[in-house]
Design brief:
Strand content: under 5%
InterPro entries: Phage_Syn9_Gp224
Number of helices: 4
Protein name: DUF2973 domain-containing protein
Largest sheet: none
Shape: flat
Structural class: mainly alpha
Number of domains: 1
Keywords: Membrane, Transmembrane, Transmembrane helix
Distance between the termini: 75 Å
Organism: Chlorogloeopsis fritschii PCC 6912
Number of strands: 0
Radius of gyration: 26 Å
């Protein structure tokens, strides 16, 4: 009997959780489609705001750009095989070129 009570309780909790999830997704989609008045964006530029202005330009993340600043169009999850020595050399080169590395070696001297 106690097992049935636990099953019933967790079923009710699961139904409540799924209903809450669906309700939140629907409310989020309504907020996403809402258009804000022009006065909202002007107050956002003055610093008196709680959300960023709706009409701002989007800049891509730096990892999505190649060395010349163009968007890359190749898959990002492609992994190439590399041996341990090459990986260690690349990591050492990155470590030695970092700005904090020079100040640490000067402090040790």
């Amino acid at each position: 009997m106690l097992h049935l009570l636990y099953i019933l309780a967790f079923t009710i909790l699961a139904v409540i959780a799924v209903a809450n999830l669906i309700r939140n997704l629907v409310m989020f989609s309504f907020y996403k489609e809402r258009n804000y008045p022009a006065s909202y964006s002007s107050t956002a530029e003055r610093g008196n705001f709680s959300y960023p202005a709706s009409k701002r330009t989007l800049t891509p993340h730096p990892e999505l750009l190649d060395s010349s600043g163009n968007l890359i169009k190749e898959p990002l999850l492609v992994m190439r095989s590399i041996n341990v020595d090459d990986a260690r050399q690349q990591l050492d080169a990155l470590y030695e070129s970092s700005p904090g590395q020079k100040s640490e070696t000067q402090e040790e001297s």
